[in-house]
Amino acid sequence: MLRWLRLWRVAGRDLRLLWFALKHRSRPLWLLPAAILIAFYAVEPLNFAVPLLGIVDDLVLLPLVLHMLLRCLPKEILDGFARDALV
């Protein structure tokens, strides 16, 4: 149970970081299309056609892909998010 809580804590932080990065003035050009693709992937029809596969997909793959995407962000955005999180 603790592993699930940690996963959701990381995913929640990643979603806040994504929102911060999308609003940042110096965000990379690839970030908006990548975020849109991840959003479409989250609501893909396969989730409804094969429910078990969709659950595994949403609980494992989406957080991992989101985390890997955010690791590619520039240091300026990551530092800004860390500063705002402390305030």
State the distance separating the first and last CA atoms: 30 Å
Tally of alpha and pi helices? 5
Q: β content, as a range?
A: under 5%
Helix content range: over 70%
Average pLDDT value?
A: 83
Profile the largest sheet: none
Count of strand segments: 0
- Low-pLDDT windows of residues: none
Structural class estimated from helices and strands: mainly alpha
Instruction: Compute the CA-based radius of gyration.
Output: 14 Å
Provide the succession of SSEs. Answer: HHHHH
How many domains in all?
Answer: 1
CA-based shape: flat
Question: Secondary structure elements and their pairing?
Answer:
Layout lengths: L1 H22 L7 H12 L3 H4 L1 H20 L4 H12 L1
Helix pairs in contact: 1-4, 2-4
How would you characterize the overall build of this protein?
The structure is a single chain. This protein is mainly α. The protein has one domain (2-86). Helix content is 80%, strand content 0%. The chain contains five helices and no strands. It has helices at residues 2-23, 31-42, 46-49, 51-70, 75-86. The longest helix has 22 residues, at 2-23. The relative contact order is 0.16. The mean pLDDT is 83.
Give descriptors for this structure:
flat; 0% strand; 5 helices; mainly alpha; 87 residues
Short description:
The protein is mainly alpha-helical and 87 residues long. 80% of the residues lie in helices and 0% in strands.
